[in-house]
């Protein structure tokens, strides 16, 4: 019911949408807006100086300090680390008071408002925990980070109390199952009530006897070992790999690499940090050397395999408590896929349909080194970078022009603003940063402004490289949109946080929280010096920014009354849909050519240059998709039938041998697969949402990616509902396929019908 881990949505890169080269004729010409403030606030130093916090000489990481600070995110508590602790303490106090009050109130009015008050309680807590999770991974000041970690622990303890409260569970059961009470509830309140009830049951409150205490114990073990596993996924068993002298040949290393490689009596030592190992994989003609380097890079510490084994066993024990035959069944019961069997059928069908194209890509690779045997069996993962580099070097045209010159960060943000204005009537308008409002001086603030409703949300863009950022790219919900009820505006209401911590917006007669989100990336300016420095993006980085802005628009345009279903608070296998759909826009040449301009000359991007670079960028995309299928299938196998005598490493190698392409049966990479903790039994979600996004793109935007009619339809039939309606209903409505409403195996089959063409359009 109440989140015990981050609700900010971590995103991850995998397969990409097709390069769209639809003829220009069917699509009206799009004219960028004349107001280019969004571009200039990134690309023009004089413009940026008008919007930034002007306080001089602040030490790095101390941007929220000093007198006159309004506090981070305009929260007056957040002027210094001690204020974050005070905000947490104050929130917990009001949350505890509200908890006692709503449990004790058995009046008719109290029962009618019970679900609303549970939602309000959850919102109070999430304002703190979402903020803390953001601070932990993005704030440059260690004192703030430490304070956020302490607050997170306090919140975790209290939320465990709530999640196992028998009184709250039984009262919710009473409200939902009393016909006289439930008939007075809105559909959204019933939806949230059922969601919370299912969460209570998943927390063990439906269990008898010792079941509840066993659940709590298992949950704690899963959280502890899972976090330890996730924290160590980037660690390797050794900082270097030793290659015997007998396996090294003259010319194996470029002169640049030789500076980092040490020859000893035992052999050649190659470091596994920095750019060196990837450069070896890309340039070294010696397959034995590449194999040793690749395997060492993907071999985890032995303790990681033990942690993964324990994590999976604890999850299997947890599933058994609820009479499920697998953790996958326990996890997927309330997701779109419904069951592990549906997921496996989906993945197997996708693998079969895409395999011929994977084989074709591998044959192209094989030609670069004259491999005559079956390439799908012969080519291994340590061959990929080397063979791809050889192939692409032969395909390079005489033009060496860098396409990133046409995609300055400001140009791309302006392009996004113009696109959103066209399809949603939403503009990204720079807003002045007040003293202490941001955590780092380069952060830009934007107001998402609707042509109908005015400001609908705030977006903070923390897009530049900083070594302390431990997670990127990412979208964080600092405050979600939800209705604020009249009693909450009462100054005498003892349970409400001070309203200065929340920005509000009127919509008709109702007041809503103004959504506040932060986008975090690690783009690095490399062109120019000082104030003239510009950040130029690759095509992959353009896609990344479009993807993250898809999450942002979901938060901005969601319009629900309750917090638990606002914006991106929806099923895991549905949440990536809006962001993946944005990647289709990022690959459409009509969209890119509508805004891409040379950062110095202002000349538009030549179509031929774009197509050449897109061809290079999309090389081996079918193989990437196949790799994602393998990982999703591995995730299902590990969380499959309850069998406590299992070995995750053997399971991994069995899956690799089954799928064959780029087979790895030597490393222990499975213990470096961090998403096994955060997306346990749900790693298929990205591929599944891509299938849905493909269908929506083809149905709404393929003919005209700038269509306001299509944008309004997607906004009104998908985005605005957040998680308040069954996603299958939303998909059925927007695709005009009522048979999808069943959400069963037949619906999944229909949705992915003609999957070959879907994946043929997937890069």
TrEMBL record:
It is found in: Mitochondrion matrix. It comes from the Eukaryota. GO terms for biological process: intracellular iron ion homeostasis; peptide metabolic process; protein processing involved in protein targeting to mitochondrion; protein stabilization. One of its GO terms (cellular component) is mitochondrial matrix. Its main location: mitochondrion. The keyword Mitochondrion applies. GO terms for molecular function: metal ion binding; metalloendopeptidase activity. Its cofactor is Zn(2+). Its EC number is 3.4.24.59. It catalyses: Release of an N-terminal octapeptide as second stage of processing of some proteins imported into the mitochondrion. Residues 281-747 form the Peptidase M3A/M3B catalytic domain. Keywords: Hydrolase, Metal-binding, Metalloprotease, Mitochondrion, Protease, Transit peptide, Zinc. SUPFAM superfamilies: Metalloproteases ('zincins'), catalytic domain (SSF55486). Binds 1 zinc ion. Coiled coil: none annotated. Belongs to the peptidase M3 family. Cleaves proteins, imported into the mitochondrion, to their mature size. While most mitochondrial precursor proteins are processed to the mature form in one step by mitochondrial processing peptidase (MPP), the sequential cleavage by MIP of an octapeptide after initial processing by MPP is a required step for a subgroup of nuclear-encoded precursor proteins destined for the matrix or the inner membrane. This is Mitochondrial intermediate peptidase. It comes from Ogataea parapolymorpha (strain ATCC 26012 / BCRC 20466 / JCM 22074 / NRRL Y-7560 / DL-1). The lineage of its organism: Eukaryota, Fungi, Dikarya, Ascomycota, Saccharomycotina.
């Amino acid at each position: 019911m109440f989140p015990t881990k981050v609700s900010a949505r971590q995103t991850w890169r995998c397969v990409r949408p097709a390069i769209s080269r639809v003829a220009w004729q069917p699509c009206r010409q799009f004219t960028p807006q004349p107001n280019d403030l969004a571009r200039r606030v990134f690309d023009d130093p004089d413009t940026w100086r008008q919007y930034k916090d002007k306080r001089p000489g602040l030490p790095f990481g101390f941007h929220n300090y000093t007198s006159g600070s309004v506090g981070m995110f305009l929260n007056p508590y957040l002027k210094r680390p001690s204020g974050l602790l005070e905000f947490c303490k104050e929130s917990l106090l009001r949350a505890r008071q509200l908890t006692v009050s709503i449990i004790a109130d058995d009046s008719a009015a109290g029962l009618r408002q019970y679900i609303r008050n549970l939602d309000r309680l959850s919102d109070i807590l999430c304002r703190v925990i979402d903020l803390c999770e953001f601070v932990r991974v993005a704030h440059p000041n260690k004192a703030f980070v430490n304070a956020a970690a302490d607050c997170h622990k306090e919140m975790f303890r209290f939320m465990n109390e709530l999640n196992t409260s028998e009184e709250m569970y039984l009262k919710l059961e009473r409200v939902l199952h009393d016909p006289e009470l439930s008939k007075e509830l809105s559909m959204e309140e019933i939806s949230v009530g059922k969601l919370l009830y299912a969460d209570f049951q998943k927390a063990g409150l439906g269990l008898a006897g010792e079941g509840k205490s066993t659940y709590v114990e298992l949950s704690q073990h899963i959280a502890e070992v899972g976090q330890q596993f996730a924290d160590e996924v980037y660690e390797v068993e050794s900082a270097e790999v030793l290659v015997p002298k007998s396996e090294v040949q003259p010319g194996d290393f470029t002169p640049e690499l030789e500076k980092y490689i040490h020859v000893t009596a035992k052999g050649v030592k190659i470091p596994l940090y920095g750019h060196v190992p990837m450069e070896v994989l890309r340039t070294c003609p010696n397959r034995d050397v590449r194999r040793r380097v690749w395997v060492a890079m993907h071999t985890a510490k032995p303790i990681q395999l033990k942690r993964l084994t324990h994590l999976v066993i604890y999850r299997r024990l947890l599933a058994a408590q609820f009479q499920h035959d697998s953790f996958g069944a326990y996890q997927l019961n309330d997701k779109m896929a419904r069951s592990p069997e549906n997921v496996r059928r989906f993945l197997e069908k996708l693998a079969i349909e895409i395999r011929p194209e994977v084989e074709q890509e591998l044959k192209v690779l094989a030609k670069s080194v004259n491999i005559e045997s079956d390439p799908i069996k012969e080519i291994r993962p340590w061959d990929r970078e080397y063979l791809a580099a050889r192939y692409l070097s032969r395909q390079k045209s005489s033009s060496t022009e860098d396409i990133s010159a046409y995609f300055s960060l400001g140009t791309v943000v302006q392009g996004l603003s113009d696109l959103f204005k066209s399809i949603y009537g939403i503009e990204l308008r720079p807003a002045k940063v007040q003293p202490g409002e941001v955590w780092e001086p380069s952060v830009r603030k934007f107001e998402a402004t609707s042509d109908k409703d005015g400001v609908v949300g705030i977006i903070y863009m923390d897009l530049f490289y900083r070594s302390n950022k431990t997670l990127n790219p990412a979208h964080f919900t600092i405050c979600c949109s939800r209705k604020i009820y009249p009693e909450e505006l009462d100054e005498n209401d003892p349970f409400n946080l001070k309203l200065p911590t929340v920005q509000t917006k009127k919509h008709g007669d109702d007041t809503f929280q103004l959504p506040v989100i932060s986008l975090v990336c690690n783009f690095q300016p490399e062109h120019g010096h000082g104030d003239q420095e510009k950040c130029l993006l690759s095509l992959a980085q353009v896609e990344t920014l479009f993807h993250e802005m898809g999450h942002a628009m979901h938060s901005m345009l969601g319009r629900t009354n309750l917090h638990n279903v606002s914006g991106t608070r929806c099923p895991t296998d549905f949440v990536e849909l809006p962001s993946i759909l944005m990647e289709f826009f990022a690959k459409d040449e009509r969209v890119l050519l509508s805004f891409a301009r040379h950062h110095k000359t202002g000349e538009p991007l030549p179509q031929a240059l774009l197509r050449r670079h897109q061809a290079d960028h999309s090389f081996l995309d079918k193989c990437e998709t196949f790799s994602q299928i393998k990982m999703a299938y591995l995730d299902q196998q590990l969380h499959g039938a309850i069998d406590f005598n299992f070995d995750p490493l053997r399971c991994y190698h069995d899956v690799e041998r089954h799928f064959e392409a780029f087979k790895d049966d030597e490393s222990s990479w499975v213990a470096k697969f961090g998403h096994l903790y955060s997306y346990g039994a749900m790693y298929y979600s990205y591929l599944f949402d891509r299938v849905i996004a493909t269908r929506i793109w083809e149905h709404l935007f393929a003919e005209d990616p700038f269509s306001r009619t299509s944008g309004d339809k997607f906004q009104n039939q998908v985005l605005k509902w957040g998680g308040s309606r069954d996603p299958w209903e939303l998909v059925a409505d927007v695709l005009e396929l009522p048979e999808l409403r069943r959400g069963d195996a037949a619906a999944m089959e229909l949705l992915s019908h003609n999957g070959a063409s879907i994946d043929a359009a997937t890069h």
